[in-house]
Amino acid sequence: MQAPSQKNLLTETRVYIAGVMAGRPPSKTAPVFGQRLASARRARGLTQPQLAKMLDMTVKGIDYYERRAHNPSIEFVQRAAKALRISVADLIGNSEGAKRERPGPTPKLQRQFKEIQELPRSKQRFISQVIESVLRGEAHTE
């Protein structure tokens, strides 16, 4: 019996790489709430692990709500909406006439402005002064 060649060993050996296979592909469409949750999470540029950390829960929990939960608790819906900075109505789909966001990730600058709004007033004033100086051309750039 011949020993297998090095080429055969390389082509026959399969290596599991964490993150490449993030679970089994869904066999059926996710519930509307799950679709909205996943869409809002992606729009904020968040991964499932990042959202799970924000909500102090496991990635499997986030996956459950995105793929299978037909009737999420109001407590989860409120926490998720707050973490994603959207209204509960937007998350559950009851926002009639609400402005639709563009699909895809939120532009970085827009996310930064939302974060600035949460800073103390003194830091907001400082950032405003920096922006004004850049717009007037007074700031030195490299």
Written account of the structure:
It contains 8 helices and no strands. The radius of gyration is 22 Å and the shape is elongated. The model is unreliable at 8-21 (pLDDT under 50). α2 packs across α4 (59-67) and α3 packs across α4 (59-67). The protein folds into 2 domains: 29-105, 434 Repressor (Amino-terminal Domain), CATH 1.10.260; 107-142, no CATH class. The chain has 142 residues and is mostly helical.
In terms of DSSP E residues, the strand content is under 5%
CATH C-level label of the largest domain: Mainly Alpha
- Estimated helix fraction: 40-55%
What general form does the structure show? elongated
Main β-sheet: number of strands, strand sense, barrel status?
A: none
Mean pLDDT: 77
CATH architecture of the largest domain: Orthogonal Bundle
CATH topology of the largest domain: 434 Repressor (Amino-terminal Domain)
Order of helices and strands: HHHHHHHH
Structural class: mainly alpha
Low-confidence stretches: 8-21
Number of domains: 2
Structure summary, number of beta strands: 0
The CATH homologous superfamily name of the largest domain equals lambda repressor-like DNA-binding domains
Number of helices: 8
SSE diagram, text form:
Elements: H1 6-12, H2 32-43, H3 48-54, H4 59-67, H5 74-84, H6 88-92, H7 108-117, H8 121-135
Helix pairs in contact: 2-4, 3-4
